[in-house]
């Protein structure tokens, strides 16, 4: 298999505070890696580091298998300000093509087609003219997923994409992400708080906390980490 990301002995943190130390794992093309763990364990910090928005304090990240760091689509955790964004759904999705424009100040027909395809995949074509801030939380997340899909057809990185959604909308989101992974062959890295809901879709699990676990979903189920965290309450 083609290895797209190799993390070698990563140390992450802010100033003198170290959040993550000696973390190593790999991501192969087509994987669905679910990152789980305690609050404040550094999961979002790890994603930002993978995207190059932050530098590791030590260790190395290597990209391969035809993937470059600037070819990763990102769905960040939503803030309240973003929820109020006064643009149409079409404009928000198309803005995912910004990285493809270079210095060109407009979107060309190829980029518009990419945005249209992404909206078809996410079943949001009827919402194209609707104002983003008038959508439900679940619809907004679909729009942001389509936007991330415009940025990359190789890898998507999703920071808690179902947080704040009701169980039905969360299920729809998981189903759409699964389709993107299985049918389109796009590698997925997703942070999830809801480990029981997320694990059926994952091929691999990275558990972050005082100790780390990295392995296949099956290995995780059989591990002491899985035993402790997969028990229904
Ligand atoms: N820019 C920053 N400067 C300083 N500290 C930060 C910064 N961003 C995050 N932190 C701190 O780093 C710690 C880990 O944050 P991070 O968001 O990576 O954890 P997380 O595992 O994603 O947590 P959660 O599950 O709560 O989202 C937190 O204590 C947070 O306050």
UniProtKB/TrEMBL annotation:
Source species, domain of life: Bacteria
Domain annotation ABC transporter: ranges: 5-233
GO molecular function, one term: ATP hydrolysis activity
UniProt keyword list: ATP-binding, Nucleotide-binding, Transport
One Pfam family hit: ABC_tran
Stretches assigned to coiled coil: none
Protein family per UniProt: Belongs to the ABC transporter superfamily.
Full protein name: Zinc transport system ATP-binding protein
């Amino acid at each position: 298999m083609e290895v797209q990301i190799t993390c070698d002995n990563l140390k992450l943190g802010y100033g003198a505070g170290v959040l993550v130390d000696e973390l190593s794992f790999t991501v192969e093309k087509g994987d669905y890696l679910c990152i789980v763990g305690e609050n404040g364990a550094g999961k979002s910090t790890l994603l930002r580091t993978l995207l190059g928005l932050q530098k590791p304090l030590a260790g190395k990240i290597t990209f391969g298998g035809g993937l470059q760091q600037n070819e990763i689509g990102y769905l960040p955790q939503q803030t309240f300000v973003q929820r109020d964004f006064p643009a149409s759904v079409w404009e928000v999705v198309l803005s995912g093509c910004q990285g493809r424009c270079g210095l060109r100040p407009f979107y060309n027909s190829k980029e518009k087609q990419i945005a249209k395809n992404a909206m078809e995949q996410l079943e949001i074509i009827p919402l194209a003219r609707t104002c983003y801030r008038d959508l439900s939380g679940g619809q907004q997340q679909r729009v942001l997923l389509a936007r991330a899909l415009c940025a990359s057809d190789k890898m998507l990185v999703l920071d808690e994409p179902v947080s704040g959604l009701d169980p039905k909308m969360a299920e729809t989101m998981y189903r759409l992400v699964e389709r993107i992974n299985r049918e389109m062959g796009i590698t997925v890295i997703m942070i999830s708080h809801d480990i029981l809901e997320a694990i059926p879709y994952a091929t691999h699990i990275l558990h972050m906390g005082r100790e780390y676990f990295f392995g296949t979903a099956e290995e995780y189920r059989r591990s002491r980490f899985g035993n402790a965290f997969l028990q229904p309450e």
